Amino acid sequence: MKAGHKLKLSNDRGPDSLREIVNQLDPGAVAVHKEVAASCELVLLAVPWDNVPTTLASLPRWKNQILIDGTNPIHGKAGKFTPADVGNLSTSQLVAA
Question: Is the CB of residue 44 less than 8 Å from the CB of residue 66?
Fold first, then answer.
């Protein structure tokens, strides 16, 4: 943000749930609804692997944005992780599909 970038954060719980973290960041950071974040030029997807399909399906249609896939192919929650079977594909190939 020191370079002039604006950061829009979102989650499935809504902007109010991000108020505390946004207040700790640079003034260029704002909390927004996920549809607003998904319409940005550059989008970072960082959700649990099991949530990828429903998260992507709930977003507006992509319009030539860049999607950075920050997911890991792991099922479960803390303490009970198991690797996901992704075959011979990368997780980014699965997300792109």
Answer: no
What is the rounded distance in angstroms from the CA atom of residue 85 to the CA atom of residue 91?
10
Contact predicate 30/9, CB 8 Å: yes
Residue 31 confidence class, pLDDT cut points 50, 70, 90: very high
pLDDT tens sequence across 42-62: 999 999 899 999 999 988 888
The pLDDT value recorded for residue 91 is 87
pTM over 0.90: no
One-letter amino acid at 90 equals S
Could you tell me which of 11, 7, 12, 41 has the C-alpha nearest to residue 24? 7
Q: Which secondary-structure segment (H or E) carries 19?
A: helix 19-24
Q: How far is the C-alpha of 26 from the C-alpha of 62, rounded, in Å?
A: 28
Q: What are phi and psi of 5, to 5 degrees?
A: -80, 150
